[in-house]
Every structure is written in C-alpha cells, then in structure tokens.
Amino acid sequence: MVQELVIAIVAAASAGALYTAAAAKVVKQYERGVVLRLGRLRDDVRGPGFTMVLPGIERLRKVNMQIVTMPVPAQDGITRDNVTVRVDAVIYFKVVDAASAVIQVEDYRFAVSQMAQTSLRSIIGKSDLDDLLSNREKLNQGLELMIDSPAVGWGVQIDRVEIKDVSLPETMKRSMARQAEADRERRARVINADAELQASKKLAEAAKEMSSQPAALQLRLLQTVVAVAAEKNSTLVLPFPVELLRFLERAQQPAQQPQLEQQPAQQPQLEQQPAQQPQLAQQPAEQPSARQQVAPPQTGQPQRAAQGQRPAQAQPRPRPRPQPPSSGASAPTPSPPPVPAPPNAVPARPSRPKPLARH
After folding, report:
1. Which helix (H) or strand (E) holds 319?
2. Residue 200 phi/psi, 5° resolution?
3. What is the pLDDT of residues 59-110, one digit of tens each?
4. CB count, 10 Å around CB of 211?
5. CA-CA distance, 115 to 6, in Å (whole number)?
6. In whole angstroms, how large is the CA radius of gyration of the chain?
7. Lowest-confidence range among 103-112, 188-197, 307-316?
8. Which pLDDT belongs to residue 273?
9. N or C end: fewer C-beta atoms under 10 angstroms in the chain?
C-alpha cells in the first residue's frame, strides 16, 4: 500500500509539474499578451512578466510593441509631368492596440507593407518631378497620412515615412545637368556684372578725388610701379603722364579755331559762282552773229584774192580796267567780259516749224 501511495504521489506531482509548465507563460517588457479562451477574446491584455493560462482552454498570443522599420520595395511610376521614375521608401510604425492588431487583421505587417506600396504609387502619379526631388517633406507627410488612415483600425500607428531614393533615366539626368549648368552660368554672369558695376562706381569716386589733387595721381602711379617691380620678372614699365596728353589736346584746339573762322569767309565767293553761269550760257547765242559778219566771196578777182588771203581773225575786245573805288562809296563788282566766239565755229541752224497735218 505504501508503495502504491508513493507512486500515486509521484505521478500527481509529475502531472502538476507538466500542467504548470504548460500553463506558465512569460511576457517580455516590449510585448503584450492577448488571451483567447475557447476562441473568445478576453478583455484583459496580459502585461509583461509571469502569467498563467489554462492549457487546452486558453491561448496566448504575444504582440511586439516596438517600432518596426520596414523598407518599401521600389515602385515604378510616371509622374504628373510624364517622367518615368523609380522610387523606394522606408516606413516606421508600431502597434498601439495589441487586441486590434490580433483580431482586426490577419497579419498587420503584411497589411502595412502592401498599403505603403500602393500609397507610394499614388503619390508618384500625383506629384511632379521637381516635387519628388526638392519637396520631399510635403510628400512624406502626404504618404504618412494615406497609410495612417486605414492603419488606425488595425491598432497600428505610423510614426514616419521617408522617400529614400528616386532613380531617373540617363537622358533625364543629362538634361537636368545641362539645366543646372546653364543656371550656374547665368548666376555667374549676373554676379560678374554686379561686381563690375560696383567697381566702376568706386573707380569713378576715386577718379573724382584724384582729379582734385594731382599729387594723388602721381602717388598712385608710383604705387603701381612698386607693385610691378616687386615681382621678379622682365617687364619694363614706362609710365606715361596723363598731363602731357592734356597739354597736347589743348595745343591742338587753338590751331583748329582759325580754320573754322576761315570757312565762313569763303562762302560768299562760292555764292558768286552761280551769278557767272548765265553769262557763260549766253556765249553760244553770240556765235552766229560773229559768223554772219564775214561777207561771202564775190566772183572774179575778188574771189581769188579772197582765196589767196586768209580771213582776218576777230580781234578780242579790250577788257575794261577796274577803277579804284572812291572813298565813301562801295565799288560795284565788275562783270567778266564776254568770251569771243572762235572763227571756225559752225552757226546753229534755226529750227523750222513742222507743217500742220491736214485732215
């Protein structure tokens, strides 16, 4: 009897030890335990530490409450300005309600991953390329809001979403590089022009100050010579004084003034030339009269005498000598004498009137 009683006690102790081992559960600090008794959710969520469940009746599921870092696979999409890009991101989330994470969704990790991928594609289609490259903070906030709205019912809180990388085609990279280079060149030219403007203003002020004091210009010239001579080179600097140029410029001005004064005095002589043109125009009209004075030859001896002797040439008229002008009265300008017609000139024939046509 005693032996059987000892065996029964040992068997009961062994069964109790096995039951205790099956019922004893340890929940870690970063976990929470959700108990299902016969498939029904218990209201109390087991905290960290040692806890007991009924083996075969209750089932304990542990939920991690730490922040989970999940990479979002790269997604290919077309932006609003029709540029093909490849974008990947990373998402940070944690479980705030362990019961909802177990009851509301089968696998909250997989659900959050799929929701992040679809939201990322939607954000790519609604944004421009410039926003993806330079305005990522706004896109991150919009992506976080799109993922967080359905995840609240799963007991999951989205802490942060970051767009990690944006891959562009090679042609687009070259175009952006040319654009950036042109922008840099434009800014460099503007800065250079602004510097030249400021330098010109300062140089104008310095020249104004030096013009009042000629010694300052000489000192500045000597300072330039010293600066050039400090370098060990074969450059020879010969300063040319500016005052010498000003002296030459002033010396040329009096020589130009008499020439300018003589030009108005020569204008009346040029004006008298048109007055002589009518007299020259009358010369052809006088040629027939000189030709008509020669008598035709007669028959007989007078004709032979006319053939043996040359016709007398018309002697030119003596030119009247100009008289000195009397005091108190201006002398009239003498008109030039008429030019005699040459003896061999052919008289101009008078034009005959054309007969009227008879009808």
Report:
1. none
2. -65, -40
3. 888 899 999 999 999 988 888 888 889 999 999 999 998 988 888 888 899 9
4. 10
5. 62
6. 62
7. 307-316
8. 47
9. C
Looking at this protein, which amino acid is placed at residue 86?
A: R
Instruction: Give the whole-angstrom CA distance, residue 341 versus residue 290.
Output: 7
Upper half-sphere CA count for residue 261 (Cβ side, 13 Å): 6
- Helix, strand, coil distribution of the chain in percent, nearest 5: 55, 15, 30
Q: Give me the long-range contacts of 137-146 (CB less than 8 A, separation at least 24).
A: 139/163, 143/89, 143/116, 143/119, 146/119, 146/122
* Residue 105: other Cβ atoms inside 10 A: 18
Distance CA 256, CA 233 (A): 45
- Contacts of residues 275-284 at CB distance under 8 Å and 24 or more positions apart, as own/partner, are 276/336, 279/335, 279/336, 279/338, 280/339, 282/338, 283/338, 283/339, 283/341, 284/348
Query: Comparing C-alpha atoms, which of 64, 42, 38, 60 is closest to residue 51?
Result: 60
Return the biggest CA–CA distance within the chain: 215
From the list 282, 270, 279, 289, the residue with the least C-alpha distance to 336 is 279
Tokens representing residue 235 in the block: 């450059």
Residue 37 in this model has a pLDDT that exceeds 90:
no
Taking CA atoms, 115 is separated from 32, 71, 86, 122, in Å, by: 25, 12, 18, 11
pLDDT in tens, 49-67: 888 888 888 888 889 999 9
The predicted model scores a pTM of: 0.50
**Residue 292: strand, helix, or coil:** helix
User: Residue 43 gets which letter from DSSP?
Assistant: S
Residue 96 · residue 59 · CB < 8 Å: no
For the four alpha carbons of 152, 154, 158 and 161, in that order, the dihedral sign comes to: negative
Is pLDDT above 60 for 359? no
Residue 76 three-state SS = strand
- Give the type of residue at 248: L
